[in-house]
Fold these 4 entries.
Entry 1:
Amino acid sequence: MKAREASDHFRDGLGYEKAADYGRALGSFRAALSGGYDNEHIHMAMGRVYRETGEYGASVSEFKKAGDAHRDKNDVFFSNEVLNETEISEKKLTLESRPRGLGAVLTTRCNLRCIMCSSWKKQWDIPGRAVSDIHGILPYLKRVMWLGGEVFLSKHFEGLFDAAARNLRLHQTVVTDGLLIDRKWAEKLARANMNLTYSIDGIDRNTYENIRRGADYDDLKRSARLINEEKEKSRNSMPEGRRMTTSINYVVMKSNYKEITDAVEFAKEYGFDDLTLTPVDYIDGEENIFLTGDRAAADHIREAVVRISARAGEYGLTFHNWLPAMGGAGHGGESGKTAAKKTAAADIFCYWPWQHLFIDIGGQVKPHCLCSRKVGNIEEDSLSGIWNSEAMINYRKSILEKKMAGLCNNICLSSPITRDCMGLSI
C-alpha cells in the first residue's frame, strides 16, 4: 500500500470517529497501520475510539504507544495530552495531568445593556493572581475561550491573547459583540489560530437594537465586513487548520425566534463560517419561551431549523442547534444528528470534568460554562488547587456513576448536541 493511501485511511478514520461510527473508524485506522502509517497520531486516535467502545485496556495501551512514538520527549503539550487521555481511560478521579481547555470571563464591563443579561450591573474584573495562573497553564492548553462582559474592555485581554497566540497548537475563541473591533485588532485577530464569535441576536435592525441596547446595527455590519476583509487577506498566509474562522451565536427568545432563518442568510452575506442557536438563559418571563412552553414558538422553530440546516449545507456553513426540546419534541441539529450519539461511551457521558475549567463571573469555577455546579472560586484558591478539589473529584465520580442530576445542564442532556461537543477528545 502506498503511503498516500495509508494516510487517506487515517483521515477516513477520523471522519468515522467524529460521526461516532467506531467500527469503521477502527477498520480505517488498522488499514492505515498495515500500510505503514504508524505514528503517535494514529495511536492517539485508536486510544480514543477504543475508549468510546468500552475497551479501556486497549485504549490505555494505544495511548502508551503514542507516547513512545513521539520523538520530542520535552514536548509538554503532547506529554500532557497523552497523560490526560490515559487518566480518563483509567477512570482516575485525581489527576496528574493539567487542564487542556479553559474558558474565562475576564470582565463584566460592557458597552451594551442586553435585555437577557444582567452581568453588567455588578462590576467585576478577573484578579491578577488568576491571570498569572492562566499564563502558567497556556503551554498545556488545546483550547481557550475569552468572554465578557465585553472582552475588549478588559485590561488583561490583549496580554493574554498575545501570550496564547505564541502557543501555536492552542486554539483561541473570542466571544464579543464585535462593535469595538478596529482595523488594528482585525488584522491581529485574522492572523491568529482562532475563532471569533459574534453575539448577534437579531437580523432585523429594530430587533437587534432592542435586544442589544446601546448597539448600532450599522456598526455591526461595519465590523463584520472589516473582519471578513482581513480574514480573506490572511487566508493564503496562514497554514490550513490554523486559519481564523468566524461564527454567529444567536440566543433565541420570544423577541427574535421568527428571525432565526434570516440568520443563515446574514451569515452567508457577511462571510461567517458557522451559526449556532442557543436558548436564552438566566431570565424568566415571556422572553424565555423554553420555560413558558410557547407552542407557537416551538412549532416555528421546529420547522425553521430544518430549513436552516438545508441552507447551511448549501452555503457551506456549519450549523449547530443547541436548543432544548420544547413540548417533548426536538428540533433536529447539525446534519440531523440526534442526542443519542452522546451516550455512545460505555461509562463516561462527558469528558469536560477531566479536561476543562471555566472561570465565571465573580471568580466561580465550573468544569464547563454549561455545567450547573461550581467546584471552586479563584478569589479563594488557585486553578491548580481547584483542578483536584474535592468538588471537582466528586464531579468526575458522579459522571462515572451516571448521577448527572444537578450537575449537567439540560442543554447537554436533551438538546441535539453531538458527542464531539462533550469534550476535547473527539
Entry 2:
Amino acid sequence: MVEKSPGRPALKRLTNGFSQRGLRLRSLTILLLAANLPALSGCAWLDMHEARLALRPTAGRPAGLAPDEQLFRPGDERWLAAVPAFAANAVRNAASNDTSNATSNATSHAARGAPPQQLALWWLPQPDPAAPALLYLHGTFRNLYQNLPKINALREAGFAVLAVDYRGWGDSTSIVPSEATITADAAQAWAELQRRQPLAARRVIYGHSMGGAVAVRLASTLKASRRADSTVDATSGAPAGARVGARVGVPVGVPVGAPVGAPVGDYAALVLESTFTRLPDVAAAAGFWGRSAAAATTLSFDSLSRIARVDAPILMLHGRADTTVPIALGRRLRDAAPPGVRWIEIEGGHHSRLHSQVPALYREALRSVVRFEAPRAADRDTDRTSNGREDGVKDSTEDGVENGVRDGTKRIPMAPGRTLSR
C-alpha cells in the first residue's frame, strides 16, 4: 500500500508507509547517523533527524482536499489549544518517564521563555449527547485530514470522537516531534475528552499503529471504569470501596471510603488497531539494516512493557496482509496483555484499511466494547450496565463474534474469502 505525501514527490519512495523497502532505507540512514554520533556536538541533533525519518510528520492541510462543508457535520468543532514548548535537552528524559500525569510532566520540561505552541483538537459529536466518546490517536505520517475515512467509520459506529493532531502534524505547530511531545499531546487530548464525556464508562481510548503505542502508554496510567462493589479486596476479602484499615490493602483504582455502588475509574475500554510491540521491532522486521538501526535508535514506543498494566477490556484488530506492521508483532503484544483480550484477525486485511475492507465487522467489533443505549437515570450514578456487569467487552457470541481467547485456531466465516480468527 503506497502512502503519498502531498507536496513531496521527491520523497515518494521514502514515504511508502512503514513498507519493508522504505524501512530498510530509513533504517540505513538512522544507522549511518548513529555511527557518526561521536562526531556530533550532542544528541539533540541526532534525535531530531531520527524522529523526522521514523515518524514522518505531515504538517498542514493536504492540497486538493474537499471544502470543510463536505468534510464535517453541523456541530463539529476544531480549535487550537496552547501547549508549552519542550526544551530540546529534556526530550529523552521525558520520553522515558512513565509518570501518570503526562501534562504536568510536559510542563516541567517546558522550554523557558519559549512561546507556547499550538495543538489541533477536533470534537466530532453525535446527535445524542449521551453517546460514548472515543479518543482517536493516529499513527505516523497521515494527519487527521488524511485519517478522516477511518474517523468517519468510528462515527458511523456511533461514537463521538475527540481527535488530536500531535505537534508536527496537520494544523498543530510544525515541529520535529518526539515520543515525549506526542505523549504530552495525547494527555492534553485525554483531559479534553474527560471534559466532554463526564461518564468514565462511556469513554474509549483508540490507537492505530503508532497511535496504539500512545494509547497503551496512556491507558497504563489509568484505571478501568467499574462500580466500587464490582471487585473484592484480595487482601481483606471486603467489598471494594468499603473502608479498610491502614494495614489492609485496597483494590487498585478504588479510593478508600468510596461508597458501595459509586462509579470509580477513568475509561471503559482500549481499542488497538494494527499496533506493534515496540518501534524497534518494526524496524527489525525489515531485515539486517532494520535490525542494525533498531539497536541504535532512541525511539521506543514500548507497548510490550506497559500493556500488562492495562486493566480495562482490550479489543485488538489486525490484518493478515499487513506489510507495515507484521501481524506477528500484534500477536506478540496480545500475548503480553492481561487475559481476556478480544483479538480479531482479518484475512486479507491491510494496515490502514480495515474499516473499508470489512465495514460491518469493524463497526460491530467497535460497538461491542461499550454500551450504546442511553443510561437510565438510576444508572447514571452507578455506571452500571443493564445486566449488572461493568461496561466492556461482551461476554456472549450473540453477534457471531467471539471474545478474544488467545489460544485456539477456530475460524468464523464472515463473508466469501474472509475469516475471523481468535
Entry 3:
Amino acid sequence: MSISEVLAMHTESIEIKNGTLDISVHSQKLALNELLDFASRENPKRGFLFVSKVLGKHIPVKPNMMRKTYDLLASDLFEDVSTFMVGMAETATGLGAGVADSLARKQKRDVYYQHTTRHECNKPIWFTLDESHSHAVDHILYEPDSRLFGQILSCERLVLVDDEISTGRTLGLLGTKLLNRLPNVKEVVIVSLVNWLGEKDHSQYADWRAQYLMFHCLKVNLHLNQNQA
C-alpha cells in the first residue's frame, strides 16, 4: 500500500434526508468532496445516490476539471496496446468518451469507443444485458460499423467504464459477453469514478479468460443509517 493510499484512509459521516451515510475512504485520487455529493432516493434497496461533481451531467463543471478526471483515469493504462473501450449508459457515456480520448492522446495504438444504450434503433444488435438493480432493465450494444468491426475484433485490451461500481454484476455480464466476441483481448480493465465493490464480489470475474484490473478515483465502503419513520 502506498503512502498516498494510507493518508487517504479515513471515515466521514454525511447527513442526507434519509439518514446518515457512514463512509470509509480507502484510497482516493480526487478528494471525496471534490468528486461527488450525495442525495436521498425513494428506493427500499438503496436509499442514497451519488451526485457527481465531475461528470457535467447533474452539476455544472468546468471542462478542465472534466479533462483532469479523464486524464487521471487514463493514466493507469500504461501499455500501448490496441484498445476497445465501452461506457455504460446512461451516466458513464460521456465519461467513457472522455477517458477514451485521453488514452488516445497518450498512446500510438488505436483506441475505439462505444457506449451501451437503452434506445432502440434500426441497426443490428450485437447483444443485450440486464441491470437488475436499476430502474431501467436493458442495455443494448449495437454491432460496430463494418468499417471498424475488424479492427475492434483485433483489439488486445478491453476497458469498461462506469461512474460507480456497486455490485459489479452488470460490468461482469458485459465483460463476459464481450470476451466471447473479442478473441484477441488479453486484459480487461474496469475503470470508475467510485468503487465500493466488496472483496467477495471480485470472484465473479474469476472465470474470465483474460486478466482483469480495476482503477478508480475513489475507493469507499458505505453504510446508510436510515432515519426511523
Entry 4:
Amino acid sequence: MTVTGTDITEDLIRDLLREQHPDLADRPLKLAALGWDNQVWRLGDDLAVRLPWATESADALLRKEHAWLPLLAPRLPLQVPVPQRLGEPSARFPRPWLVTTWVPGEPADRAPATRAAEAAVTLRSTAVRRARRSSAAGAATSSTRGPSRTSGVR
C-alpha cells in the first residue's frame, strides 16, 4: 500500500494506461522491482512504468526526472531509464507516474560491483563533469539530495 493508501496492482496500472496512454495498455506487464521510492513494472520488452509508493518526496523527483533526464541521458557514460511519458494524478491514483525506457541488466543492489574503484573514477571524470557542464538556467535542484548548484562542492 502506498502513502496515499492505494494498492498498486496490475489492474490499476492497466487502468491508468488505458486512461492516459491507451496505445500502451495492452502490452505485457509484470512487477520488476520495489524500490525505496517507486515500484517499477516492466511494460513489454522496451518500457517500464514507475509509480511512487513509499515516500511523498518521490512525486517531485519523478517530475524532475521527466524534465531533465531526456536532456542529460545522452551525455552520460552509462545507460539510464529515460522518461518517455508522464502520467498525471487522477481519481484512481493521486500521484504522478512515469513511463520510461527499460534498461536491461541486473539491478545494482543485486549485483556486486566489479572494479568499483575504476567505475567510481569513470563516473566522476565523465558523468558528473558532463552534467555540470550541461547545466542550464532553470536546472533542477534539490534541497534533500546532493549539493546545490551554488554550494561550490566539486
